[in-house]
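G., the chain you wanted modeled:
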Amino acid sequence: MATSEGRKPRQAGGYVRISNDPLEEEKGVTRQREDVEALAERLGWKVGKIYPENDTSAYKRKRIELPDGRHVWRVIRPEFRQMLRDYQDGVIDGIIVYDLDRLARQPRDLEDLIDLVDHYRRPVVGVTGSLDLMTDNGKAMARVLMAMANKSSADTSRRVSRERVQRAREGRSLPPNRAFGWEEDRLTRRPEEAALIRKAVLGFTAGENWSSITRMFMESGISPASGKTWYLTTIRNMLLSPRVAGIVTYWGRDGSPLVEDEYGANDSKRRGRISTSPRDLALRDTDGQFVRGKWQQIVTVEQWDAFVAEYERRKEGKEFTSGRTKKYLLSGLLRCARPREDGTPCGRGMVGVTGKHPTTGKPRKFYKCPSKNMGGCGSCQREMTQLDQLIEDLLFLHLETNQPGEGDRVADGQLQAEHPDAAKLADVQARLKAMREGMRDGKVSPESFFAVVPGLETQERQLIASLSKARRAQVDRDQRRKSPEKVRAEWQAATVPGKRAILGQYLRAVMVHPARPMGRSFDHETIVPVWKPLPQ
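Predicted structure as tokens:
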């Protein structure tokens, strides 16, 4: 359905776009549509289809995954891409836009359209008269204007990003709407909401799981700041945010975490990076310290840091509790030791089930190895109440006999100072500070700055990660060095998920061997706990 260069399009497409329309009034695209139709009438063309993209940027790119698994950054404009497909398929035989900067702001998009025009020879014109892709001069001018438009967008983005960094560094970076835990001024704590956040942070650190934390929010009678329903993801993101500890967060222009850098070196290196730790969201100054906001904190930095350490410990799989074994105390921790035909133990995790007593018919609960079609043997089981009490007694007997005490616990600050990487980190951060100050004072050239700083930043990130890993290990050791009295107090106050977390700190597994014929008594000797080594 090719159109000759002298033939007027009978089914032209009109493309209209506005970058920013938060109220979705569509006034801008409506005006553009009127101008596009007026030009079509003057040219004697017929507009058969309009491609509107309201509140859509032609400059900002997003990270997408290609079919082969690689990731690239592209501008996402569905209507623009549909217009190119229709142009190629002959659905439209010409294009009218208001102006080149409405059509595209990235050279890649313009070149895609130029390729189609070169092959199909269907006209593309603009209302302002500055667009003509049918001639070599017109294409050359379009490319020049596109480069200038792209630079204008980049300059605007850089200025906005710089202003946001400045606000964040001064502790003035506030959310656009009221955040849960604070009043409408976004600075003052709201007591009942702040108390709920604090209870959740301390409860999770002590062993509660996400299900019990979510249930606590839902049963509190307090609604979210926005919306009517609590969701686990909402609660988790809220608690993990450094904001609850009074720490400033900044994601950067493209949504990537940005560490304090007034010259943009970090911004260029971190573009599109996916955060792996909540600590990556925290803004730091040139000395590597957290930037504190002007709002009231809900938990201390130490409490938040311990909460994040516990979250990352569980995320790395350093506990036996799984998402499907939360209801009963020992589900998943018990391992069936009944020998298989080859002499090896079954090894399948036993789960809690309910049923009726074979003689009395009364309801009862017991732990059972799954059936053969579920990977177990289906032959090993134990009464739940007696086994729960036995493991509790064995836990505290083990602690009272072997616990080394907690008198020599290492403070976090002391750990950071004594770690081998602490001195290296201090040296790297001092060199970074010197380079930034030298750039600011004109003593360091831009060439030297950008040749040295990215490498130092890479070293800084690696050293911070190493210290964070050591801190999480120390938190885990300190947790397992509590006195038996403190562990017992936590145990008595904990729910089932909390007790499961306590057991996971000291036990690798509990082997359940086949019961010996002993009448109706509970065979204690067939229950063999496998303890984790206690820290010395």
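The radius of gyration is 32 Å.

Shout if anything looks off.
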